[in-house]
Amino acid sequence: MQTLGVWVHNLKPELIEVSEKFALRWYGLAYLAGFIAGYFGLRWLAQKRLWVVGPEKVADFIAYAALFGVFLGGRLGYVAFYMIPESGFGYVLENPLVILQVWKGGMSSHGGILGLTIFTYFYARRAKCSWTGVGDGLVIFAPLGIFFGRVANFINGELYGRVTNAPFGMKFPKELLGREEDFNAAMKGAVEADPGKLDGLWDRYLASPSTGQGQLLEGVLEAGRTNPEIMDAIAHYVQVRHPSQLYQAMLEGFSLFLILLLLRLRLPQIGNGVITGGFFILYATFRIIAEQFREPDSAWVIQDLLTKGQFYSIFMYVMGVAFLVAGLKGKTGSLVGQASAN
User: At 27, which helix (H) or strand (E)?
Assistant: First the structure.
């Protein structure tokens, strides 16, 4: 089937470039937007007495959750779930600084969720309030952070979808980094379309392919933003794929947020933990669905059947059911008659 309106992705990952080494990137803004949305959302929820944490504590809660839950959990999750299985534990031991090199990419959403789960447990103990009650507020607005993050993934042209012959789709040039023959042919065509700008990058790539490949592609995409002939030259070598980042943004992000928010507003009397259980179950379900359209970014758990993202999501069902059952049986208390943590 012929695809309609196929677009070659060429969005700029930087919003503002201060210098060659410093820029304001969309991915960083996505984290900031998520924390801001979480702060105002949780403060609003607390003011309506729909969260066990008091309004005056929300700012500190968000700051600690960002540091110990999102960043620490997300990075350690990436190292444990993806880096070690692929590169080996010995590689991490020999290069311990890779754990801190977040600027090179690598944050796990499953790790971030696990990190937030552990963080809320210790926070609730210190604040002497319900652990599941704390989680019920957090999981409502956490999907907004996921939403912004997936949109940033799309802008960056990363974590793209699988090849499709559906009547819609996009082309993501970064896929060429994994296909040497097509990469060379596409880059050669791009250089011929604008040799004045790209000859130097091409020469550096030929001199050092391992380090010059990424620089060459970035230079070609940058030049292609003002020269359509460059994008036309590489379009022939790039496959049509699902924009799965946008699917995930809507499913795991915006839709999940709306469902959980409506559940909180319509059923304020439900037991603590029910909303948290709903988050785990729905997130796992949406992630498994979205992974059917996303190009696996690491080795399969079961070849052509189960991706790592789907495999890790299965364990979230167990956690979700545990929170759900405890909350529905009234073992964890509820907002009714429960004071906020001060």
Answer: helix 26-47
Looking at 48-128, list the stretches that DSSP marks H as alpha helix, in order from N- to C-terminal side.
Answer: 58-64, 72-78, 84-87, 89-94, 109-127
pTM: 0.88
What is the end-to-end Cα distance of the chain in Å, rounded? 61
Q: Which of 158, 190, 185, 187 is nearest to 172 (CA)?
A: 158
For residue 326, what are its two tokens?
């405890």
State yes or no: pLDDT of 298 exceeds 80. Answer: no
Q: Is 240 helix (H, G, I), strand (E, B) or coil?
A: strand
Q: Which of 247-251, 258-262, 335-339 comes out lowest in average pLDDT?
A: 335-339
* In the chain, domain spans: 7-17+26-165+242-328, 173-237
Asked whether the predicted pLDDT for residue 1 surpasses 50, the reply is: no
Which of 272, 229, 274, 279 has the alpha carbon at shortest distance from 253? Answer: 279
DSSP state of 83: I
CA distance 126 to 302: 42
Structure tokens at 104: 């090179």
